[in-house]
Here is the input.
Amino acid sequence: MALISMARAKWALMLALVLPTAGCVAAAAAAGAGAGIYLTSRGAESMVEGSVDDVASRARAVMNEEGIVLDEANMESGGDERQFKGKKGDLDVTIQLKRESENTTRTEVTARENLAEWDKEYAQQLLSRIVEKS
Here is the structure.
């Protein structure tokens, strides 16, 4: 009887050691699939491969494809920072770009529903589409 409970204890220990590792592998695979996109308090952000000009072009293409009506476009710091604001239905969409290096642009997308609510999922979808256009 003691042999059976000892064998069960060994299996339980092995299972406890293996399950967290499998979960980490799955989480790492999911993170890789997201191309480094992470949620912020109001939307989604990522370091996107491409110059500010290139990413700005891709961002405007995604806005057009999504039917987001461009209200405002700003450029600062000699073109190293750009911002696009538009509207889709009740959502106020903002895309902010900032040059991090010659070939890398920090990109943040927000989609505000009202003063206190943000559609982070839609912001993440927009940013994913900008990343995919590379």
